[in-house]
Amino acid sequence: MNRVKAKEYASKALFAAAAIVCIVAVVAIFVFIVIRSIPALSKIGFFNFVFGDVWNPDRYDEYVTDPLAGRYGILTMIVGSIFSTVGALIIGGILGFFTAVFLARFCGPRVKRVFGAVINLLAGIPSVIYGFFGMAVIIPLFANISPTGDGAGLLVTSLVLGIMILPTVVALTKNGLEAVPQELYEGARALGATHEQAVFKTVVPAAKSSIVAALILGVGRAIGETMAVIMIAGNSPEIPGGLFGSFRTMTANIVLEMGYAGEVQMGALLATGVILLVFIAIINLLFGLVISGGKKNKGGKKLSLGVTMPKWLNFSAIGKVVSWVCAVFVAVFLVLIIGYIVIRGLPHITGDLLFKNYHYGGEPALLPAIVSTLLLIVVSIVIAVPLGIATAIFLNEYTKKGSKFVRIIRSSIDVLSGIPSIVYGLFGMLTFVVWFGGSSSILAGGFTISIMLLPTVIRSTEESLKAVPDSFREGSFALGAGKVRTIFKIVLPSALPGILSAVILAIGRVVSETAPLMYTMGSVLQPMPDGFLGSGATLAVALYALAGEYKYMDEAYATACVLMVLVLILNFFAGFIGKRLGKKFQGENNAVRKTKKQSKQSSED
Amino acid sequence: MLFGKRKNKASSLPKTEPQETAEGVVAETAAEELSYDGGITVKEANLHYGDFHALKNISIEIPEHRITAFIGPSGCGKSTFLKCFNRMNDLVAGCKVEGEFTIGNVNIYGNIDVNELRKNVGMVFQKPNPFPMSVYDNIVYGPRTFGIKKRAALDEIVERSLKQAAMWDELKDRLNKSALGLSGGQQQRLCIARALAVDPKIILMDEPTSALDPISTGKIEDLCMELKNDVTVVIVTHNMQQAARISDKTAFFLLGDLIEYGETDQIFDRPKDKKTEEYITGRFG
Ligand SMILES: Nc1ncnc2c1ncn2[C@@H]1O[C@H](COP(=O)(O)OP(=O)(O)OP(=O)(O)O)[C@@H](O)[C@H]1O
Ligand SMILES: [Mg+2]
């Protein structure tokens, strides 16, 4: 019997160890990035760095006698990040808010379901495809109205980022609006308000805190976005002069120069990452404040942030029309982006492109990229899925909500999910690339992206563990089974569809990500990778590389088409499999709710 | 250290590991062979959920191979008391049990293996909870837990338990079908068969028929009468007729107190306590 007991403790220790990996990852990321940036910062001077408006790094700073021949001021990029984020907030915020109002209050259940799926698609499209679409389609359009004749810059970046943050804004706002008690709405109607008036004057203000939280989360996404931005912003390190002014964001700065940075320059790029993290931290802090504030005054009647509805919103009827227009715009944009890429790409997907090996200087061929992508999927799934599932098991099956240890783990997971992908790229370059032999490799890319995947895998696994009725666990315990047996024989098999869908979603992420892989795994088209220690570009990276060469636009469209269809299929399957879980336990829902109520009671006592 | 700390403040159901030992109880001497054969003896049991005193100073002797019914209004502690006998309360946050609980010659809150206790003291829940697997796998779940691996042995167990639960003829051709496809009544009897598969000495039933139709209820009542030849049955029920029909002894609980305990005939025909009479007549009338 002692063996059983030993097994119980060993398993618990293993699950806890997996959870601790999340804490270690957060600490390591901060330590590496911050510590490695300190020498450069102390040479440049913190003030010069943050408030200097000239960025003119000396690439050869290792060789010249004066290590500070270059100038390292990132003020223009801080401003660039802020401008583009505000632009994205204006476009994505307004579109997202009204689309959410439309979905929550102005459409039938069927439209809502279809539209929800559409928004999910939007969320799944890789950022490199948004960037590509912006570069290949929107910029040429804007060139016609731009005074300089160049369509790149602030406006197109804001538009694309706005569309990219839209799913986040819509989802959270919609949830907030739907959570407003129906009595409030009915109360307004009983006083003679029209449907529109009740929605805009009663329901929307009551959901204010979730709306603000949605916008803040959108800001977090926009400021961390990298790939889409470098393809459309123009990238010159200056303050954007108008809507069509070229500019560079902090994320773009990192990814543009980290490939060839000298010592001080590398430090300065890391320091850029630190400043970016500071911004993210502030955003998360605001988010936390709004959420907890919203909870305190139930519905957020009094919000200290001073966000008030614009006056013209009082014309509720106009609000309704705007909601319709925004929703239609979003739908059209999605159809446009998918349709256009398919139409332009499909004819150029040829056997030669897909199934031929590539050699330097030859015509583009994607077979190495496809193989690299598959190898990367293998590495990252092998690492992230067991770790993520073990962590989720630890959190959901072994621990108590309030404990300090659990709170630390949970906040680590939150932090991990908020870190911009390019910062993972920096971290991977400093650690995994070095550890695996000093040059980019699929293994290094896989480790890097695995950490990124952890929050997603953990959260969705936890969701599906929560959906397993407690009565199953009770039944197993009552038959004399221990904890470990209950988990492996009863809980995990029941949660399998949900976990599978989490794995598929994770694969989708691996396929879509670009920024963290550029300098950990490979950034240019390459011949067949040399096994896991060889380097290689994934399909997404290949798209970025091809888009950079105007000669191969057709091939780029074809690659974009393949990539997009692949991701959409993966997301579709993830959703499909996930839904089966719900069906399986439909009869058990009451049991779940009852036990939840009981445990709530017990915690109140 | 991390783990040791959390162990004391167990978490909400069922998210902590079963606690292996209860504190402050003298360990059993190893020399004596542990046996769960025999009745249940409880002396001065008290149970707290946090600050809430859910069971107050309860002493009772439950005879073996009899059906004992627990009755009483909602929230009086019947389920709580029942769950003391297989220590399912260990899984509840902030639940503290005091007093002496003996089954056979085992002090069940002493230094014992909880899983072994639960093997000997099976439980059937209010809502049927078959696992989402085949009928066969449901039944052999317990035996497999305790190391029985041979197919022939498992086959035998399945047949014996299903026969014991009077559903062999009904299910023998559907052993490989999912248990979730059975009707509610069948699911509940399957859960009884599942509990029987590990050869328990006692079966605890917490309102096993309250979610079932009258015909299924009848089948389960018949089954209980059969079972008492092999096991001791303790059943919680809201249904007075059911208690009167099937039980040999009845215990009436009110607000955490054991008000009256005796032969079922006596409790229903000549209750000694005023409160028992009020409760019973209130329900009958
Ligand atoms: N996990 C718990 N935490 C705190 N209090 C609890 C818990 N479980 C039960 N209680 C309380 O203990 C008391 C007895 O509960 P119990 O479930 O044993 O009653 P019962 O007699 O079985 O009632 P019912 O007939 O409704 O099943 C009730 O007041 C209940 O609120
Ligand atoms: Mg009960």
How would you briefly describe this protein structure?
The complex is a heterodimer of chains A (605) and B (285). Chain A has 605 residues and is mainly alpha-helical.
According to CATH, the homologous superfamily of the domain at 1-42 and 350-550 in chain A is MetI-like
Structural class category of chain B: alpha/beta
Helix content of chain B: 25-40%
Overall strand count of chain B: 10
The bound ligands are:
adenosine-5'-triphosphate, magnesium ion
Q: What is the distance, rounded to the nearest whole angstrom, between the alpha carbons of the first and last residues of chain B?
A: 59 Å
Write down the Rg of chain A.
25 Å
Topology pattern of chain B, helix = H, strand = E: HEEEHEEHEHHHHEHEHEEHH
CATH secondary-structure class of chain B: Alpha Beta
Average residue pLDDT of chain A: 83
Task: Let me know the number of strands of chain A.
Answer: 2
CATH architecture of the domain at 1-42 and 350-550 in chain A: Orthogonal Bundle
Q: Identify the quaternary structure here.
A: heterodimer
Can you characterise this structure?
The complex is a heterodimer of chains A (605) and B (285). Chain A is mostly helical and 605 residues long. Chain A is 74% helix and 1% strand. Chain A has 25 helices and two strands. In chain A, α3 packs across α13 (316-345), α7 crosses α8 (195-206) and α20 (470-478) packs antiparallel against α21. Chain B has a single domain, classed as Rossmann fold, CATH 3.40.50.300. Chain B has eleven helices and ten strands. Chain B has helices at residues 2-8, 78-84, 114-120, 135-145, 151-164, 168-171, 184-196, 214-227, 240-246, 264-269, 274-284, and strands spanning 40-49, 52-62, 67-71, 95-103, 106-107, 121-124, 202-206, 232-236, 249-254, 257-263. In chain B, the strands form two sheets. In chain B, strands 6-7-8-3-9-10 form a six-stranded mixed beta sheet, sandwiched between helices. In chain B, a hairpin with a 2-residue loop joins β4 and β5. The longest helix of chain B is centred in the middle third of the chain and has 14 residues, at 151-164. Chain B is globular and about 55 Å long. The chains are: A mainly alpha (605), B alpha/beta (285). Chains A and B meet through α1, α15, α20, α21 and α25 of A and α1, α3, α4 and α7 of B. Magnesium ion binds next to α2 of chain B.
